[in-house]
Sequence to fold (189 residues):
Amino acid sequence: MEWIVITSPGFLQGEADFIDRLFGHGLDRLHLRKPGADIGECRRLLDGISREWLPRIVVHDNFGLCREYGLGGVHLNGRNPMAPPNHEGSVSRSCHSLEEISRYKGECDYLTLSPIFNSISKQGYMAAFGPGQLAAARDSGLIDRRVMALAAAAVVSVLLQLGECASRTVATAVSCHAALIGEILPYSV
Fold:
């Protein structure tokens, strides 16, 4: 399973050191999601992260940082729905329906799907898919290894209980964890 972490929307004291530690403990990819942050704040954070990890970082905003720092890719969303011209890294996208998964699957390296579980961090942000609906999408091939489930502590808790992340540190600085839906479904259906 690929271990992907999405940053908290705000900047945290010691965040660059924490990100370095996550990569040192096996993090595969970090999504730098700082909506509303100016490019200078993002540069300061990236300057504090070890250069060896930069190709494994994906940005949700300030796409120019991708080329400037040699980052791994861009993540498309409602604020930034198109990759920059001549972009050479990975392209991922946020999806909030199975229809969006079907629409964008051929255009992206991978997609995120949410909300899978009721959110503990966003009041009133409830699961949008029933287990049967997700299982049917998986069985039809719509959901595969390129579709990631976004979830907060619920998924991390399930994975820790299953021993999937036993050697990995999960801290409050991590706001979300992306996991393969196919790996979660057998335990949530």
